[in-house]
Amino acid sequence: MLPSIVFTFIFIFVVCCSNHDGKKGEGPGEMKTAFIVTILNDVVFVTDPGGRRLVKFDTDGNFIGNLVLESGSPNYLQSIGQDKFICFIRKFTQTKEGPYSQFNLVLKDARFRDIATLSHFKRKFDPAYNDFLDRYSHYAVGNNEIFAAENSENHYKINVFDFNGQLRCSIEKNYTETPFDKIELDELNSTLKATFKKIGRPYYFPIRSKFKKSINSMYYDKDGRLLVASSVKRNRDNRYDFLVDVFKDGVFMKKIKLNIAKGYDYVKSHDRKIFFKGDRIYHLNELEAEVIVFEY
Protein backbone atom coordinates (compact mmCIF):
# COMPACT_ATOMS: atom_id res chain seq x y z
CA MET A 1 0.00 0.00 0.00
CA LEU A 2 1.38 3.40 -0.94
CA PRO A 3 1.72 6.28 1.57
CA SER A 4 -1.56 7.84 2.58
CA ILE A 5 -2.79 11.29 1.66
CA VAL A 6 -4.36 13.19 4.55
CA PHE A 7 -6.65 16.19 4.05
CA THR A 8 -9.06 18.03 6.29
CA PHE A 9 -12.77 17.62 5.73
CA ILE A 10 -13.77 21.26 5.28
CA PHE A 11 -16.54 21.20 2.67
CA ILE A 12 -20.26 20.60 3.10
CA PHE A 13 -22.63 19.47 0.37
CA VAL A 14 -25.93 21.26 0.89
CA VAL A 15 -29.05 20.00 -0.83
CA CYS A 16 -31.33 22.87 -1.69
CA CYS A 17 -33.88 23.90 -4.28
CA SER A 18 -34.15 27.07 -6.31
CA ASN A 19 -37.26 28.39 -4.58
CA HIS A 20 -37.13 26.98 -1.07
CA ASP A 21 -33.41 26.70 -0.27
CA GLY A 22 -33.94 23.32 1.36
CA LYS A 23 -35.50 24.81 4.48
CA LYS A 24 -37.56 22.94 7.06
CA GLY A 25 -41.18 22.44 6.25
CA GLU A 26 -43.69 20.39 4.28
CA GLY A 27 -43.83 22.32 1.02
CA PRO A 28 -42.17 21.48 -2.31
CA GLY A 29 -38.48 20.80 -1.71
CA GLU A 30 -38.81 21.24 2.05
CA MET A 31 -38.09 18.52 4.61
CA LYS A 32 -38.98 17.85 8.23
CA THR A 33 -35.91 15.72 8.95
CA ALA A 34 -33.29 15.28 6.20
CA PHE A 35 -31.46 12.05 7.05
CA ILE A 36 -29.69 10.21 4.19
CA VAL A 37 -28.71 11.20 0.66
CA THR A 38 -27.91 9.05 -2.39
CA ILE A 39 -27.81 9.60 -6.17
CA LEU A 40 -29.50 7.41 -8.77
CA ASN A 41 -29.29 8.34 -12.46
CA ASP A 42 -28.43 11.99 -11.74
CA VAL A 43 -31.34 12.33 -9.34
CA VAL A 44 -30.50 13.19 -5.72
CA PHE A 45 -32.73 11.36 -3.23
CA VAL A 46 -32.95 12.64 0.35
CA THR A 47 -34.81 10.64 2.98
CA ASP A 48 -37.25 12.63 5.12
CA PRO A 49 -38.40 10.27 7.90
CA GLY A 50 -40.48 12.97 9.56
CA GLY A 51 -42.38 13.55 6.34
CA ARG A 52 -42.48 9.81 5.47
CA ARG A 53 -41.08 10.45 1.99
CA LEU A 54 -38.08 10.63 -0.31
CA VAL A 55 -37.47 14.14 -1.64
CA LYS A 56 -35.98 14.32 -5.15
CA PHE A 57 -33.67 17.00 -6.57
CA ASP A 58 -31.60 17.28 -9.72
CA THR A 59 -27.84 17.59 -9.30
CA ASP A 60 -28.12 21.40 -9.36
CA GLY A 61 -30.37 21.30 -6.31
CA ASN A 62 -33.69 21.97 -8.09
CA PHE A 63 -36.71 20.23 -6.57
CA ILE A 64 -38.20 17.47 -8.74
CA GLY A 65 -40.82 15.75 -6.60
CA ASN A 66 -41.55 13.42 -3.69
CA LEU A 67 -41.90 9.67 -3.28
CA VAL A 68 -44.31 8.81 -0.47
CA LEU A 69 -43.06 6.09 1.90
CA GLU A 70 -45.85 3.70 2.75
CA SER A 71 -44.05 1.25 5.02
CA GLY A 72 -41.15 2.56 7.05
CA SER A 73 -38.25 4.91 6.46
CA PRO A 74 -34.96 3.66 4.97
CA ASN A 75 -31.66 3.50 6.82
CA TYR A 76 -28.32 3.28 4.96
CA LEU A 77 -29.85 3.95 1.58
CA GLN A 78 -27.57 3.12 -1.40
CA SER A 79 -28.18 3.14 -5.15
CA ILE A 80 -27.38 0.02 -7.19
CA GLY A 81 -26.84 0.06 -10.92
CA GLN A 82 -29.15 2.36 -12.89
CA ASP A 83 -32.52 1.53 -11.40
CA LYS A 84 -32.37 0.10 -7.87
CA PHE A 85 -31.76 0.88 -4.22
CA ILE A 86 -30.67 -1.23 -1.29
CA CYS A 87 -31.58 -0.14 2.23
CA PHE A 88 -32.60 -1.18 5.70
CA ILE A 89 -36.28 -0.65 6.47
CA ARG A 90 -37.53 -0.57 10.05
CA LYS A 91 -41.22 -0.76 10.85
CA PHE A 92 -43.53 -1.79 13.65
CA THR A 93 -46.52 -4.10 13.31
CA GLN A 94 -49.33 -4.70 15.78
CA THR A 95 -50.43 -8.31 16.40
CA LYS A 96 -52.64 -10.07 18.93
CA GLU A 97 -49.50 -10.85 20.94
CA GLY A 98 -48.44 -7.20 20.94
CA PRO A 99 -46.20 -4.92 18.84
CA TYR A 100 -43.34 -6.39 16.81
CA SER A 101 -40.24 -4.63 15.52
CA GLN A 102 -38.97 -5.52 12.04
CA PHE A 103 -35.67 -4.52 10.45
CA ASN A 104 -35.09 -5.86 6.95
CA LEU A 105 -32.44 -5.42 4.26
CA VAL A 106 -34.53 -4.76 1.15
CA LEU A 107 -33.85 -4.33 -2.56
CA LYS A 108 -36.07 -1.60 -4.08
CA ASP A 109 -36.80 -0.40 -7.61
CA ALA A 110 -36.47 3.24 -8.74
CA ARG A 111 -40.02 3.97 -7.54
CA PHE A 112 -39.11 2.48 -4.16
CA ARG A 113 -41.24 -0.63 -4.53
CA ASP A 114 -40.01 -3.88 -2.96
CA ILE A 115 -38.12 -6.29 -5.22
CA ALA A 116 -36.72 -8.71 -2.63
CA THR A 117 -35.88 -9.01 1.06
CA LEU A 118 -32.24 -10.07 1.47
CA SER A 119 -32.16 -10.40 5.25
CA HIS A 120 -34.78 -9.97 7.93
CA PHE A 121 -35.15 -9.44 11.65
CA LYS A 122 -38.37 -9.62 13.65
CA ARG A 123 -38.83 -9.54 17.42
CA LYS A 124 -41.56 -8.62 19.86
CA PHE A 125 -40.97 -5.01 20.79
CA ASP A 126 -39.62 -4.34 24.26
CA PRO A 127 -38.79 -0.66 24.92
CA ALA A 128 -36.41 -1.68 27.74
CA TYR A 129 -34.33 -4.03 25.54
CA ASN A 130 -31.54 -2.81 23.22
CA ASP A 131 -31.69 -4.93 20.06
CA PHE A 132 -29.16 -2.88 18.07
CA LEU A 133 -26.67 -5.71 17.47
CA ASP A 134 -29.43 -8.21 16.74
CA ARG A 135 -31.18 -6.23 14.04
CA TYR A 136 -28.22 -5.01 11.98
CA SER A 137 -26.72 -7.38 9.42
CA HIS A 138 -23.98 -6.28 7.01
CA TYR A 139 -23.77 -6.19 3.24
CA ALA A 140 -21.46 -5.23 0.37
CA VAL A 141 -22.20 -4.54 -3.29
CA GLY A 142 -20.00 -6.04 -6.02
CA ASN A 143 -19.95 -5.55 -9.79
CA ASN A 144 -23.08 -7.62 -10.35
CA GLU A 145 -23.90 -9.16 -6.99
CA ILE A 146 -24.91 -8.30 -3.44
CA PHE A 147 -23.29 -9.98 -0.44
CA ALA A 148 -25.57 -10.13 2.62
CA ALA A 149 -24.20 -11.56 5.87
CA GLU A 150 -26.38 -13.55 8.22
CA ASN A 151 -26.47 -11.88 11.63
CA SER A 152 -25.22 -14.56 14.00
CA GLU A 153 -23.05 -15.15 17.05
CA ASN A 154 -22.14 -18.74 16.24
CA HIS A 155 -21.91 -19.19 12.47
CA TYR A 156 -20.29 -17.39 9.54
CA LYS A 157 -22.45 -17.25 6.43
CA ILE A 158 -22.82 -14.78 3.57
CA ASN A 159 -25.62 -15.09 1.03
CA VAL A 160 -24.85 -13.92 -2.52
CA PHE A 161 -27.69 -12.38 -4.58
CA ASP A 162 -27.86 -10.99 -8.09
CA PHE A 163 -29.18 -7.47 -8.69
CA ASN A 164 -32.71 -8.86 -9.02
CA GLY A 165 -32.59 -10.32 -5.53
CA GLN A 166 -32.21 -13.94 -6.65
CA LEU A 167 -30.01 -16.09 -4.40
CA ARG A 168 -26.96 -17.37 -6.30
CA CYS A 169 -24.99 -19.16 -3.60
CA SER A 170 -23.73 -18.89 -0.04
CA ILE A 171 -20.23 -18.46 1.38
CA GLU A 172 -19.45 -20.19 4.68
CA LYS A 173 -16.37 -20.40 6.88
CA ASN A 174 -15.56 -22.10 10.18
CA TYR A 175 -16.22 -19.84 13.14
CA THR A 176 -16.15 -20.20 16.93
CA GLU A 177 -18.27 -18.11 19.29
CA THR A 178 -16.12 -15.19 20.44
CA PRO A 179 -16.96 -13.49 23.75
CA PHE A 180 -16.85 -9.75 24.41
CA ASP A 181 -14.32 -8.63 26.96
CA LYS A 182 -15.09 -5.77 29.36
CA ILE A 183 -13.06 -3.20 27.40
CA GLU A 184 -14.94 -3.96 24.19
CA LEU A 185 -18.38 -3.94 25.77
CA ASP A 186 -17.70 -0.66 27.59
CA GLU A 187 -16.48 0.97 24.36
CA LEU A 188 -19.50 -0.32 22.43
CA ASN A 189 -21.97 1.07 24.94
CA SER A 190 -20.11 4.37 25.17
CA THR A 191 -20.27 4.79 21.40
CA LEU A 192 -23.96 3.89 21.14
CA LYS A 193 -24.90 6.09 24.10
CA ALA A 194 -23.19 9.07 22.45
CA THR A 195 -24.95 8.29 19.15
CA PHE A 196 -28.35 8.09 20.86
CA LYS A 197 -27.69 11.45 22.52
CA LYS A 198 -26.66 12.99 19.19
CA ILE A 199 -29.94 12.03 17.53
CA GLY A 200 -32.02 13.24 20.48
CA ARG A 201 -32.82 9.98 22.25
CA PRO A 202 -33.29 10.78 25.97
CA TYR A 203 -32.49 7.27 27.17
CA TYR A 204 -30.07 4.43 26.49
CA PHE A 205 -30.34 0.82 27.61
CA PRO A 206 -26.86 -0.77 27.55
CA ILE A 207 -26.10 -3.86 25.49
CA ARG A 208 -25.18 -6.84 27.64
CA SER A 209 -24.45 -9.43 24.97
CA LYS A 210 -22.05 -12.19 25.95
CA PHE A 211 -20.84 -12.97 22.44
CA LYS A 212 -19.88 -10.85 19.44
CA LYS A 213 -21.53 -11.10 16.05
CA SER A 214 -19.44 -13.19 13.66
CA ILE A 215 -19.36 -10.56 10.85
CA ASN A 216 -18.94 -6.83 11.54
CA SER A 217 -18.44 -5.24 8.11
CA MET A 218 -17.78 -6.15 4.48
CA TYR A 219 -16.13 -4.42 1.53
CA TYR A 220 -15.67 -5.14 -2.18
CA ASP A 221 -12.41 -4.01 -3.76
CA LYS A 222 -11.20 -3.11 -7.27
CA ASP A 223 -9.93 -6.65 -7.95
CA GLY A 224 -13.25 -8.35 -7.22
CA ARG A 225 -12.27 -9.50 -3.76
CA LEU A 226 -14.67 -9.58 -0.84
CA LEU A 227 -13.09 -8.37 2.40
CA VAL A 228 -14.89 -9.48 5.56
CA ALA A 229 -14.12 -8.11 9.03
CA SER A 230 -15.02 -10.99 11.32
CA SER A 231 -14.75 -11.14 15.10
CA VAL A 232 -11.56 -12.44 16.69
CA LYS A 233 -10.36 -12.88 20.24
CA ARG A 234 -8.62 -9.65 21.22
CA ASN A 235 -5.61 -9.12 23.47
CA ARG A 236 -3.05 -6.41 24.17
CA ASP A 237 -1.15 -7.14 20.95
CA ASN A 238 -4.07 -7.11 18.50
CA ARG A 239 -6.56 -4.92 20.39
CA TYR A 240 -7.21 -2.51 17.48
CA ASP A 241 -5.87 -4.40 14.47
CA PHE A 242 -8.11 -4.03 11.41
CA LEU A 243 -8.26 -7.68 10.32
CA VAL A 244 -10.18 -8.95 7.30
CA ASP A 245 -10.82 -12.32 5.65
CA VAL A 246 -10.15 -12.17 1.91
CA PHE A 247 -12.40 -14.08 -0.51
CA LYS A 248 -12.08 -14.39 -4.28
CA ASP A 249 -14.94 -15.97 -6.26
CA GLY A 250 -16.37 -17.27 -2.98
CA VAL A 251 -13.15 -19.00 -1.93
CA PHE A 252 -11.31 -17.99 1.25
CA MET A 253 -7.74 -16.87 0.47
CA LYS A 254 -6.22 -15.56 3.72
CA LYS A 255 -6.65 -13.20 6.67
CA ILE A 256 -4.77 -9.91 6.42
CA LYS A 257 -4.27 -6.72 8.40
CA LEU A 258 -5.23 -3.40 6.79
CA ASN A 259 -3.29 -0.38 8.02
CA ILE A 260 -6.05 2.09 7.20
CA ALA A 261 -7.95 2.46 10.49
CA LYS A 262 -8.44 0.98 13.90
CA GLY A 263 -10.29 -2.32 13.96
CA TYR A 264 -13.24 -3.09 16.21
CA ASP A 265 -15.40 -6.20 16.48
CA TYR A 266 -18.41 -4.01 17.18
CA VAL A 267 -19.93 -0.65 16.32
CA LYS A 268 -17.51 2.26 16.37
CA SER A 269 -19.22 4.52 13.86
CA HIS A 270 -16.95 7.55 14.13
CA ASP A 271 -13.81 5.62 13.16
CA ARG A 272 -14.96 2.87 10.83
CA LYS A 273 -16.49 4.65 7.84
CA ILE A 274 -14.49 3.01 5.07
CA PHE A 275 -15.29 3.32 1.36
CA PHE A 276 -13.61 1.41 -1.47
CA LYS A 277 -13.75 3.21 -4.82
CA GLY A 278 -11.59 2.18 -7.77
CA ASP A 279 -7.90 2.38 -6.86
CA ARG A 280 -8.54 4.17 -3.59
CA ILE A 281 -9.77 3.58 -0.08
CA TYR A 282 -11.41 6.48 1.76
CA HIS A 283 -11.46 6.51 5.54
CA LEU A 284 -13.65 9.13 7.24
CA ASN A 285 -12.75 9.83 10.87
CA GLU A 286 -15.47 12.05 12.30
CA LEU A 287 -13.66 12.78 15.58
CA GLU A 288 -10.62 14.18 13.78
CA ALA A 289 -12.73 15.76 11.00
CA GLU A 290 -10.49 14.29 8.32
CA VAL A 291 -10.61 11.96 5.37
CA ILE A 292 -7.56 9.77 4.74
CA VAL A 293 -7.12 8.52 1.18
CA PHE A 294 -5.09 5.38 0.43
CA GLU A 295 -3.99 4.18 -3.00
CA TYR A 296 -3.24 0.50 -3.55
Question: What would you note in describing this structure?
Answer:
The protein is mainly beta and 296 residues long. The protein has helices at 132-135, 182-198; strands spanning 5-8, 37-40, 43-48, 53-58, 63-68, 73-80, 84-95, 98-109, 114-119, 122-124, 139-141, 146-149, 156-161, 167-173, 215-220, 225-230, 243-248, 251-257, 273-277, 280-285, 290-295. The protein has a domain at 10-125: TolB, C-terminal domain (Neuraminidase, 6 Propeller). The chain has 2 helices and 21 strands. Strand 2 and strand 3 (43-48) form a beta hairpin. The longest helix has 17 residues, at 182-198. Residues 1-21 have low confidence and may be disordered.
Produce the secondary structure layout.
Blueprint: E1 5-8, E2 37-40, E3 43-48, E4 53-58, E5 63-68, E6 73-80, E7 84-95, E8 98-109, E9 114-119, E10 122-124, H1 132-135, E11 139-141, E12 146-149, E13 156-161, E14 167-173, H2 182-198, E15 215-220, E16 225-230, E17 243-248, E18 251-257, E19 273-277, E20 280-285, E21 290-295
Antiparallel strand pairs: 1-21, 2-3, 3-4, 4-5, 6-7, 7-8, 8-9, 8-10, 11-12, 12-13, 13-14, 15-16, 16-17, 17-18, 19-20, 20-21
